[in-house]
Amino acid sequence: MCEDEDRWSFGDPCFIYHGKIIPQDFPYVCILVQGRPRHHQDAFSCRHPQMERRKRAKIFAPFDALDGYSDCIASKRVQYCGKIELDDAEKEELNRRLTILHNLTFNSRMARVNHVHVRVKYFVPCTDPNSFSYGRQGRYILAAGVVRNVDMEVMQTIFIDDMVIRFDDIISIEAEERSVFEQELDD
User: Fold this and answer.
1) What percentage of the chain reaches a pLDDT higher than 70?
2) 100: closest CA among 164, 169, 155, 179?
3) Mean pLDDT comparison of 8-12, 93-97, 105-109, highest-scoring range
4) Rg from Cα positions in the chain
5) Which residues does residue 151 pair with via DSSP β-bridges, in sequence order?
6) Which of 12-26, 37-51, 136-150, 172-186 has the lowest mean pLDDT?
7) Residue 147 CB: number of other CB atoms within 10 A?
8) Phi and psi based region of residue 164 (left: phi greater than 0; alpha: psi -120 to 50; beta: remaining)
9) What is the phi/psi pair of residue 80, to 5°?
10) Which residues contact 181 (CB under 8 A, 6 or more apart)?
11) Around 158, how many Cα atoms within 13 Å sit in the side-chain half-sphere?
12) Torsion angle in degrees (nearest 10) through CA of 29, 34, 36, 37
């Protein structure tokens, strides 16, 4: 009788091989017991060398049957909000900070010498045309880096490392050194 008679329905006799119940009349028992074939320096191993694990992983890696589907689903998880309108006092304070940064980075030499690190929180509108928020809402992103230039007259933009941010989209600016924005402007 088998050890697990209540679980086994094929009848007697049977044996256990590596924790599995195998019936005695199983047609491939000799192959099962023999194990995996081993090829060491024979004609087969010369013609078919063992593949590197990295290459083997590429063969069996999952593929994306619906190209772009996972990106589309991920884009739906993004939470969008409306653009915050600053009141007059907040606009004045933001303008004061931008003017200080403009004076510190008036040209490229001054920008390199002063090397002002800032964190800017700004609004980015929704660019996904399939989203309900497209053209109406967006999200706020925090950018950090060194101020390269502040264009107050023409473009009204601030250059932080390789990013260009419009003044209208900025909600707050913080400097790593608190003393940067504590100075008074000369009128």
Assistant:
1) 89
2) 179
3) 93-97
4) 34
5) 157
6) 12-26
7) 24
8) beta
9) -110, 155
10) 96, 97, 100, 175
11) 32
12) -130
Please give, one letter per residue, the 3-state secondary structure of the chain: CCCCCCCCCCCCCEEEECCEEEECCCCCHHHHHHCCCCCCCCHHHHHCCCCCHHHHHHHHCCCCCCCCHHHHHHHHCCCCECCCCCCHHHHHHHHHHHHHHHHHCCCHHHHHHHCCEEEEEEEEECCCCCCCCCCCCEEEEEEEEEEEEEECCCCCEEEECCEEEEHHHEEEEEECCHHHHHCCCCC
- Which residues lie closer than 8 Å to 97 by C-beta, 6 or more apart? 173, 181
Q: pTM score > 0.85 for this model?
A: no
Over 60: is that where the pLDDT of 7 sits? no
pLDDT value for 57: 76
Please give the domain boundaries of the chain with CATH numbers for all domains.
14-60 (no CATH), 88-182 (2.30.30)
Q: Is residue 11 predicted with pLDDT exceeding 60?
A: no
pLDDT in tens, 25-62: 888 888 887 877 777 788 888 888 888 888 877 777 77
How many beta carbons lie within 10 A of that of residue 158, not counting itself? 27
Cis peptide before 23 (omega within 30 of 0): no
CA–CA distance, 121 with 171 (Å, rounded to integer): 6
